[in-house]
Each structure stands twice: as C-alpha cells, then as structure tokens.
C-alpha cells in the first residue's frame, strides 16, 4: 500500500520551514515507557507511553513531525488511536499499583472510538483506575461541550484525565480551566534550569497554588538533581525526566528497546496527495 507523502511543518528560528516529507506507510512505530516518580515516596507511580518512529532504513523521525504529518494527511486521529492500542498492549507488564498515561489530542479525546478502545481494554482486564488520558497541546478546544462530555465519560468509567505541557502555551491554560484535570504536567520550559532561576521558581509556586484543588502536579523534563530539588521546594509532588528514568520498553529494567506496532492499520485505504 502506498499513500503518497504527507508533509510536516515545523518552526525554526522564527521561520516556517518544511521538514523532509514523511511517507507514513514506511514508518515503524514503537512504544516506550518513561517512569513518573512520586517525590514523597521516591517510587514510580506511573508510566507515560511515548511513541517513537523510524523509517524503512532505520532513521528515527521526530514523533511530533510524524503526528503532524498524519493530521495533514487526514489520519491524525487514527494514528493516535493506533498509539493508544499499542500502549495498552503493554499494560500487563506494568508493576502492580502503577498507572499508564496515554497521550491524545483534543480531537481524539472527543472521538467515540477512543472510549470504544478503552472499553475493549477494560473488558480484557485493564483496570480503569490505572489509566490516565493525557491531553497534548497540539489542537485548541473548538467544541468545549464535546470536550467536557468526553471528560465526564472518562470519569464515569473511573479513568483520570491529565493535561500535558501546562505553562508552555495558551492551549494548556484553556485545557486546565475547561477540563478540570486530575493531573497537570508542567511544560519542560518551566522546569529545565529552574534551580538557577529563582524568579521562575517563585512563579511556579504561585501557578501551582492556582490549579484546580486536588490536582496532582507533575514536572516534566527534570534533567538534574538541582532542578529536582527546586521542584520539591515549589510544591511539585511528581516528576519525570532523564535524570529520573529514560524511556524504555521494560517497566522493571527499562532498557532502550522497542515494541513493533502495526501503524499501517491507522492509515486506511485512501491516497494522500
């Protein structure tokens, strides 16, 4: 099957540039798990499922560019759902008591197929209390009521909601106000180097105090012990980053390995031009 090449765009130095065309049909998809650490107990509380892609000659493709290409090709939701299904296949390998966090856009959050796939997983033995749906920054909330209804549907099934990259853009703030998430993940731009920026640390403390009551705060992109200590001082309860654990396939040993996924199933049978 060949569907042509969908072109992903990225912003570089303030100028819009066109990345190398991404042929979605030649990609090999993988799911890696990165640990999320409870800073009070210093134990793993959950795992974020991260998608990784390589082309037919083994060259790694940036995940954001691949998902953007899928959106431009008209198969963005299908691609995200394939990532969700691939990640759910790893659930049984997780240590008892830890949760699995699955990244989706607002578009996929409001797709009936997401609830259907989650329902199938629950029927197969996945515990809803150990699932988190994590909303990415990518798309704004155009239909607020549909997003709220989707959140309510998740809550009714016992599945928690998180928002990703809070503080990194307008969308994260809107998501926090609109969706009242159970978990808020701070954008790495707020976290990286915070130990050397006391004014940013004070800003973070104020930001955290203004979040919905009871929301768990996770610092992303923790790369040093100094930044980890600063996050603790700011009142952050959970963290993830390369300092705490690199993404891997095995939730016990966490080596740098991958799991094959049939991403071609996400594309369908239409030509992309």
Describe the model.
This protein has 273 residues and is α/β, with parallel strands linked by helices. Helices cover 32% and strands 22% of the residues. The strands form 2 sheets. The protein has an 8-stranded mixed barrel with strand order 3-4-6-7-8-9-10-11. The protein has a two-stranded antiparallel ribbon with strand order 1-2. Helix 1 (63-72) crosses helix 2 and helix 2 packs parallel to helix 4. The longest helix has 13 residues, at 76-88. The radius of gyration is 18 Å and the shape is globular. Residues 1-21, 253-265 and 267-273 have low confidence and may be disordered.
Order of helices and strands: EEEEEHHEHHEHEHEHHEHE
Name the assembly state.
single chain
The gyration radius over C-alpha positions equals: 18 Å
Helix content estimate: 25-40%
Residue windows where pLDDT falls under 50 for at least 5 positions: 1-21, 253-265, 267-273
């Amino acid at each position: 099957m060949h569907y042509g090449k969908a072109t992903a765009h990225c912003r570089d130095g303030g100028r819009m540039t066109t990345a190398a065309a991404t042929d979605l049909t030649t990609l090999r998809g993988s799911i890696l798990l990165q640990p999320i650490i409870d800073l009070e107990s210093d134990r793993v509380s959950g795992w974020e499922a991260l998608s990784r892609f390589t082309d037919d000659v083994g060259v790694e493709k940036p995940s954001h560019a691949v998902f953007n290409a899928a959106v431009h090709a008209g198969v963005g939701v299908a691609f995200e759902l394939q990532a969700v299904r691939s990640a759910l296949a790893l659930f049984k390998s997780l240590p008892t008591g830890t949760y699995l966090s699955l990244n989706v856009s607002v578009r996929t959050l409001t797709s009936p197929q997401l609830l259907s796939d989650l329902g199938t997983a629950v029927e197969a033995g996945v515990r809803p209390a150990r699932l988190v749906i994590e909303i990415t920054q990518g798309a704004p909330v155009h239909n607020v009521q549909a997003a709220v209804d989707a959140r309510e549907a998740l809550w009714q099934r016992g599945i928690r909601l998180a928002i990703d990259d809070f503080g990194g853009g307008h969308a994260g703030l809107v998501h926090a106000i609109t969706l009242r998430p159970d978990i808020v993940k701070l954008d790495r731009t707020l976290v990286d180097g915070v130990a050397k920026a006391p004014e940013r640390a004070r800003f973070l403390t104020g930001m955290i105090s203004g979040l919905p009551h009871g929301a768990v705060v996770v610092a992303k992109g923790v790369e040093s012990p100094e930044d980890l200590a600063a996050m603790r001082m700011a009142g952050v309860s959970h963290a993830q980053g390369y300092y705490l654990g690199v993404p891997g396939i095995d939730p016990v040993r966490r080596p740098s390995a991958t799991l094959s996924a049939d991403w071609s199933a996400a594309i369908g049978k239409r030509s992309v031009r």
